[in-house]
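Appendix B. Raw example, untouched.
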Amino acid sequence: MEKTEQFGEMIPKGAGDPIPLLKRKLLVGRRESCDIVLRFGNVSAHHCELTLESGYWFVRDLNSQNGTRVNGYRVTKRRIDPSDVLTVAKYEYEIKYSPADLGAVGPPPDGGDLEDILGSSLLESAGLNRKSRQSADGRIGRNRPASRPPIVTDENDDAEASPSVPAVDASEANEEEATDD
């Protein structure tokens, strides 16, 4: 019997049998035509692609509905280092392999982080996107503008003009204290 070359494995977090990585390019998805079939309703038909490049595994999301993540971060393309956690939809797998055994020499290739950074605007990357701020303030989704801050009046104004402090007659306050006994 011929021994099949294995390039690593995906170990399900929690329970399940390890999934061997038997080819240098693997299609992951729900369809039977995929190399790695994940029969879950929230996994896209063609969810992501795993490729072996210079001794390292890379994942590329194929515009899946529920996303692909590496160590909790949603990615479009990213290098998967040994022992990283790959999440397909909500299913987590630890990736086990040895770059040296797969022909890696020298420093690892670019991890694809640049593509993720360039995939969003500079304002979003810096957290300065107006829509993001409004969402955090609770202003998005409402049909009215955000409430205005209270108007601060000068302390020299009359007490009657100040809407925040009601005027109380001293004799009324004394009557209330007397009835409490």
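End of appendix B.
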